[in-house]
Structure formats: C-alpha cells, structure tokens
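Bug: token stream looks shifted between consecutive jobs. Job 1:
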Amino acid sequence: MPLQISQPPIAARKAVHSMLGRIVAGGGDHVTALRSASLSSLAVSTPHRIAVLGLDRIGSGMSLRSAAQ
C-alpha cells in the first residue's frame, strides 16, 4: 500500500515562505544560519513522525518502543 501524504493548505505554505523570506533578508536574529542562505535554496518539507520518550516512562525490562509516546 503506497503512502499518501496530505499537503498543507496553500495559505500555510505561503505563510512559511513569507517568514523564511524575512529571516533570509535579515529581519531578525531567529536562526542565524538561515541569514546567509538564498530563499531559492530553501525547501519546506512535510512534518516527520517523532516519538517522545520521557525518563519517567522507562522501566526495567521495558522495550523503548512501547514506552515512547
């Protein structure tokens, strides 16, 4: 079965690109590494699946996969 990835709304993509443009143009000290980039070289990717593993959820003999949220 192929993965089906939903696309974010167009307004959301435009808002992200607008903010990236302001950061690249030097409109703030948010991410200094982005200020030296060109806007055309940046790409927005879809969110990645992540897991959170709190230290309080780790138990003796427990698999980390089952403890992660």
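Job 2, same session, no restart:
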Amino acid sequence: MPIVVVDASVVLDFAFDEGEPIETRRLMRLVDQGAWVPQHFRLEVSNAIVSRVRRGVFEADRSAEFFDLVLRLPLHVDGETALDAWSIGFRLANRHRLTTYDACYLALAQRLDLPLATFDKALRAAAEAEGVALA
C-alpha cells in the first residue's frame, strides 16, 4: 500500500545526487515502501533527462540506466490525474501560482490523504497552505 505521493524532484535529486543527500535518502526510503504519482510523472522525468542531455550535464547513453532505476521503484500511477487537471488541479494552480503539473501532485495528495514528498519550494508552500502533510 503506497504511503506517500512523490514528485519528480525527489527522484531526480536521488538519481543525480543534486539535493541534500540525507533528506533525499530519507524520502527515497518512503518511496521504496510505495508511492503514488500522477499520470504525467514519467513524461516529467523524461523531459528532465532530455533537458540535462541538451545542457551537456548528462550523457544520453546513460538514460536507459536511469529509466531502469525509475521503473524499479514501487510507483503506482494514478488514473484520475487528467480529470483532476481540469478541476482541482486548475484551481490549485491558480490559487498558488503553480504549474498545472505540480498542482496535480498536490491534488493527488489531497484526494488520497497522503503526505507529499517534494523538494519544490512553491509546491511545498502550497501543500502547507492547503493543509497537506509533507513527507
């Protein structure tokens, strides 16, 4: 049973060793117990890889290794994200000046009544304002 909603920032920090190592490892231990992600999660992660390749900070040849790492995570993809994007996601995005993509993580955490794991500062502030627990 998933215990957290995780956004792409946590998985990317883990994979690229970009964030605070102790906090990243703590959140990834939660993810290892099972995590929910919205439908666009894989697209968001893939886009981040493409951006890093274009900037020359990640080798395209290593992308398959990274995607294998992500695919091994016990992630549960929510099937209602697209519906949320038209309603609650849109309202949350406007209310907190988030992208609709980020607002859907927040909407998912609200709907499932689960804590949200994210390093995104704006998303963290929105979660706090909405009464959503942070992992």
